[in-house]
Amino acid sequence: MPRAKKPVPEMEPRCRGRLSTEQYAGRWPGQQPDYKDGQERRNSAVLLEVPWTSSASTISKLKFDVVLIIGERSKHAVFSNTEAGFQQLLAWLGKQRPDPDCSLHACMEATGNWGLDLADFLHGQGVQVSIVNPLRIKAFGQSELARNKNDKLDAGVIARFCRSQNPPLWVPPAPHLRELRELVRRCNALKDARVQETNRQKSGFASPAVAKSIEAHLSWLDRQIDEVSAAVLRLVQGDTTLRKNLSLLRSITGFGEVSAAILLAELPNIADFTPKALAAFVGLSPKEHSSGSSVRRPGRMSKVGAERLRGTLFMCAFSAKRFNPRLADFVQRMKNAGKAPKVILVAVARKLLVYAHAVIRTQKPFQPLPNAPSSI
Questions:
Q1: Number of neighbouring beta carbons within 10 Å of residue 262
Q2: Are residues 192 and 153 in the same domain?
Q3: 286 pairs with which residues across the strands?
Q4: Contact status, residue 177 vs residue 268, Cβ threshold 8 Å
Q5: Cα–Cα distance for residue pair 128/40, rounded to 1 Å
Q6: Which end of the chain is more exposed for a tag (fewer CB within 10 A), N or C?
Q7: Considering the domain boundaries, does residue 198 fall inside one?
Q8: What is the Cα–Cα distance from 10 to 15, expressed in whole angstroms?
Q9: 6, part of any domain
Q10: What is the pLDDT of residues 212-266, one digit of tens each?
Q11: Residue 128 sits in a domain of what CATH number?
């Protein structure tokens, strides 16, 4: 006789693009609880998400997609990336939200200046705003086994990320700090363009008209660099805190006026970091890749961080490695240990970052002599 088949136990349906409250109940490390004791906080939070996809830059310049999640329901809408579109978004939210007194949490990817105006607008309306590293959103979408990608689907991914992860809130920078950052980045862009034109000039041209055009462009770039640099210095000297921090950074051998201004522009809240977190933010922390007893890849620098700051610190490290007496013994010990020159350079750059954090946090200048007392 054929053997009787055992009954197949009924299985719970898997998540189909939406996270259930049972899957992510409880407290996440370092974050506020999404749900208390496994129970959903009904109508306690309304989550708004605005995606800024780097792969669709033409779309992100002109419009933005919004997904509003209320409980288990979601609404999608598209608005223009203008002041009128922001007002339309506000009116749409007023119609869609059942309880205007409920808290509203907006989340968007960090993609430069395209989302800052909207973030400022929402923050001014009393909305909690989070600006998240795009790598976190990408990893979250991969954890959901997302197979398709478009603006609407990306909006849903970031909205669910906001609901489950409760990312930290964003605080808008002061207007003069945002202006300082844009001026510093503009100056760097002009310098990069000058390097490109100089390389073209050195390559040689048979046409006198082309050579004349390059020469004229170089002269214009020099004037623009001088004007923007002067604007940066005026802005720094006009603010008491920036002026003092610039002086503290310049007390460290290796930091010049330009590099110190870049550090102040890109890291206005440097004192809020710990030294390890600061190195990770800039991308100077070590990266390990090992598994079991067979996988042992060589250690390397993570490079997951602020590229502009990392490049500036490398240039400062070239000078500090030779002229900073506080680093002479450190560099010599690494040479004696057989470390490669690039490894030494990375270590010196990290040392300079820690020194910069210390002088700004303690508001005390750097002690240049090896035998002098230091607060670092």
A1: 26
A2: no
A3: 301
A4: yes
A5: 20
A6: N
A7: yes
A8: 16
A9: no
A10: 999 999 999 999 999 999 999 999 999 999 999 999 999 999 999 999 999 999 9
A11: 3.30.420.10
